[in-house]
Design brief:
The chain is mainly alpha-helical. It has helices spanning 10-21, 46-59, 79-96, 102-116, 128-145, 148-164, 169-174, 213-230, 233-250, 273-290, 293-307, 331-354, 360-380, 405-419, 440-464, 538-541, 543-555, and strands at 210-212, 259-261, 266-268. 45% of the residues are buried.
């Protein structure tokens, strides 16, 4: 039974006041005095931060994940665990500029997703939050590696949610549709405003009309990202509708509530850091791409309130404890979820900081994350020599004595974010390649050999070519630096999956096993691959394979491999 909170009447008034006044208010966000009791700075170099982040990621031992086998490793038991693991790896390469995790993210993640599905349960129906996590992981990977099939996969997953769970303006007006067999017309005594922009918790429970923050927030975020990438106004409209819905029905002026039921107009508060993450990241991206000062002002207000909310913070300190009162009666649920989910809040705050450089908001967020960073190293990192890359799920004084996937996954988000707080210096610009395992001399050797091969092939081509030959032009792409994806894997195809636990099974089991309606085709107009020009000489076409073979030989076959073959239906 969903419970209406005493503070809920504030929702509509709060939303109206924020939207009406925040755009003209002076934006000043000061670091709270209570934070001065914590260390809001760190003298660690960028290189040191990168090393900490890479070592924490390596401790997760992603190489031991066999996407063809079920069940998945016991240390990564849930949908959010595995998707956030891959998201963290992609974000790490995004911050460092490396390709360390290219193979696991582009190959293993996709194979794992194909075999185990979006929802962690058999069939193509399940809880929307699970699909959202996968979609964002694929988008982060695309943003890092510029592989078009990663973007196409994110869009396919997004389309699945959009078609089966997103409440359009027409559906909201009629109170029917979106796969529901019950009405979700807004009750007369409910807060005024449309339900458009809501995202149902499941596409497999047609008699349920509950909407979750984990469903709306990340959908808002991905909508904003996709609009930024494609300039397709449909994504912008969806993002705006979801933002409006969250402000009207889920944001109470202090935090985002967990669940809202459309039919009964009732709320289930259940404070979770995860719920704040989607709202913050979505607002940050949407405000940035639309240059909307009112949304930026709202972002300031949300960040200020969420980072000082006492439920998930240590008494007298902003260090995230991650314990929600609603989980106290179910320690197993708390173990599996709350410790892992707080990393997503850090990731969202880092995105908000990046999109508001040099502002009070950026300095505030940097101080907040640095406090978490220092607490992580001083109170959660393992102390013994074999445990220095392990992190406890608690950041408030319990050093890791054994490996914890929840602790490590959350730690990676914090360590990743802290990398960007220090600009690269001359010594730091030498990147960690393949987790630091490749020596600079080996790389130089490969470069020298490659230059020699280029010269020899050029000479051969020059010798055999007519005197008036001009250099062949290489086709351009719409995005600089996009890798060649010719022959890469086809976009994700929704398939049946083996059973895997999900957070939402604790609320109610999904019903129905039929496949969702067909996905609309992915528009490829904005995605271009670098293609070798026709008529290229044989000598030049064999150059990449020659260099790759040499590189593989010198690096022990550690070079990234191409993505897996196309998925079958």
């Amino acid at each position: 039974m969903l419970l209406r909170n005493l503070f809920m009447p504030r929702l509509a008034a709060t939303a109206v006041v924020i939207w009406a006044t925040a755009g003209i208010a002076a934006q000043v966000l000061e670091i709270p005095q209570t934070w001065t009791l914590q260390d809001t700075t760190s003298n660690r170099s960028r290189e040191s931060r990168e090393t900490l982040a890479v070592n924490a990621a390596m401790a997760l031992n992603v190489g031991q994940i066999d996407p063809s086998q079920f069940p998945p490793p016991l240390w990564i038991p849930d949908v959010q665990y595995i998707s956030n693991l891959f998201a963290g790896l992609a974000m790490q390469d995004h911050y460092t500029g490396n390709d360390t995790w290219f193979n696991p993210v582009t190959k293993v993640m996709q194979s794992f997703n194909r075999n185990f599905g979006l929802y962690g349960v058999p069939g193509s129906t399940g809880f929307t939050g699970d699909a959202n996590h996968w979609a964002l992981a694929f988008y982060y990977a695309y943003r890092t590696y510029n592989q078009s099939f990663l973007l196409e996969t994110a869009i396919q997953i997004y389309n699945q949610t959009n078609a089966t769970c997103f409440v359009t303006p027409s559906a909201a007006a009629g109170g029917t549709g979106v796969g529901r067999n019950v009405s979700f017309t807004r009750p007369s005594n409910c807060t005024s405003g449309t339900y458009a922009g809501a995202v149902f918790s499941s596409n497999g429970s047609p008699d349920h009309t509950d909407v979750c923050a984990e469903c709306v927030g990340p959908f808002l975020t991905l909508s904003a990202y996709l609009y930024e990438e494609t300039n397709n106004s449909a994504y912008l409209e969806a993002a705006q509708l979801s933002a409006d819905f969250m402000i009207q029905y889920m944001w109470n002026g202090t935090i985002v509530y967990d669940t809202f039921d459309l039919s009964s107009c009732s709320w289930y508060p259940n404070p979770l850091t995860l719920n704040q993450a989607g709202f913050i990241e979505g607002l940050a991206v949407l405000a940035n791409v639309t240059k909307n000062n009112t949304l930026t002002a709202l972002l300031y207000d949300v960040v200020s309130n969420v980072t000082t909310f006492p439920v998930w913070s240590l008494d007298g300190s902003p260090v995230i404890q991650g314990q929600s009162a609603s989980f106290e009666s179910n320690p197993d649920l708390a173990h599996h979820w709350q410790s892992n989910l707080k990393g997503t809040l850090i990731r969202a705050l880092a995105e908000a900081r990046m999109r508001n450089p040099g502002t009070d908001l950026a300095h505030y967020i940097e101080a907040y994350i640095t406090i978490q960073f220092n607490a992580l190293l001083s109170q959660a990192q393992g102390l013994t020599p074999n445990a220095t890359n392990w992190y406890s799920s608690s950041w408030t004084g319990s050093h890791a004595t054994a490996f914890s996937s929840a602790g490590s996954i959350a730690a990676v988000d914090v360590l990743n974010a802290a990398i960007d707080f220090v600009s690269p210096t001359g010594s730091d610009k030498t990147r960690l390649l393949h987790a630091g395992a490749v020596a600079g001399g080996v790389v130089s050797g490969v470069a020298a050999i490659a230059v020699a091969i280029v010269f020899l092939l050029w000479r051969r081509r020059r010798k055999n070519a007519p005197c008036n030959d001009l250099p062949m032009a290489i086709s351009a792409t719409t995005r600089p630096g996009v890798r060649d994806t010719t022959g890469a894997v086809e976009p994700f195809v929704l398939s049946s999956s083996a059973g895997q636990p999900s957070k939402w099974e604790n609320f109610y089991a999904p019903s129905g096993s039929g496949r969702a309606r067909a996905m609309p085709p992915v528009t490829r107009g904005h995605i271009q691959s670098t293609v070798a020009p026709a008529g290229e000489s044989e000598g030049l076409t064999e150059l990449p394979s020659l260099v790759e073979r040499l590189y593989n030989m010198l690096h022990g076959q550690q070079l990234r491999e191409p993505p897996p073959p196309a998925y079958g239906h």
